[in-house]
Amino acid sequence: MSLYRSAAIAGVAESRLGIVSDATVLELQAEAAEEALAEAGIEKNEVDGLLCSGRWGRTPQLEVAEYLGINPAYSDGTSVGGASFEFHLGHAAAAIKAGLCEVALILYGSTQRSGKERSLAASQNLALQYESFAGLPNPVGAYALAASRHMAVHGTTRKDLAEVAVAARKWAQLNPKAFKRDPLTIEDVLAAQPVAEPLHRLDCCLVTDGGGAVVVVSPERAKRLAKRPVWLLGHGESHSHMLISQMPDLLSTPARDAGERAFAMAGVARKDIDVLQIYDSFTITVLLTLESVGFCRPGESAAYVSGGRIAPGGEVALNTSGGGLSYCHPGMFGIFLIIEAVRQLRGECGPRQVRKHDTALISGTGGVFCSNATCILAGD
């Protein structure tokens, strides 16, 4: 089943971001939902689809629906890490096309910074016990293994990784909502404290609080929006493993299959994409995703991002919000990739607005390169 233009994004919003010590995870999601629905010109009682994910409760789907007073006809709690919301976007479109709902609300929220909720200890008694006993820090240690492999096979250097962090910071300096906006140089990244070699502190995403919301509607409902819709052209998803020790190839991620499916559905080529929003949990995540999705060949991602090529004013508009490295990262970043892509396609990004913004690609990564969903969007 093709999802080509079967659904449109009608509204997007973040809650308060950064350090939000005076709100619960439910309040943050409510803030984002209220703003996204208002932007779309849609009343809460019109929402008949609800999709959410998170580690903040035993039954997040039920808790957030109850808190918001929504009784959905369609519900999806797919949880595959930070890519969950790219999965949700495709699932919402499929549900809308199947007639299961007309207005779907995708939600996420986290108070992981103020609540110090980063630990994954609860899952150590399952498969992770076979890696944790050796002292592998999860997830940074797993990403460090992939980075080490990339260096060994392709000659990638820490300076190549630093290019990603510096470009993200330059975009963040144009985003008033970004958590980190102070200047950052290659030398700063190289001199930062080691975390798991070869990844140092500034190769790693932020730890923040925050929430986000995305409203997805049917083509018929899209005719009556307060703002012009953004259309889903293509969607693909894939997952290949849970443990990094079981990853089939450290240099090829599920983005390869997900990307192929998304491009085939959308009927566009890589050269047609104007804006890239690629999950940047760590600097190596961007390099491997660029290769897996096909924007460069294996081993060529370091050259692809070099010399400020992905920074403001460069040839490639990538992670224009500042990404998870400098804008925000409340544990699962995927929903914020969608929010920024929609704003770029609408031309709403002020000083960081990309001049040509007809199409956008979003690539969400979950777990330790475990899952990926790729979405291709276009303006009305």
Automatic annotation (TrEMBL):
Source species taxonomy: Bacteria, Pseudomonadati, Pseudomonadota, Alphaproteobacteria, Hyphomicrobiales
Domain Thiolase N-terminal: 16-218
Transmembrane segments: none
Domain of life: Bacteria
CDD domains in UniProt: SCP-x_thiolase (cd00829)
Thiolase C-terminal domain sequence ranges: 236-378
Organism: Nitratireductor aestuarii
GO terms for MF: acetyl-CoA C-acyltransferase activity
Gene3D superfamilies associated with the record: 3.40.47.10
Protein name: Thiolase
InterPro entries: Thiolase, Thiolase-like, Thiolase_C_2, Thiolase_N
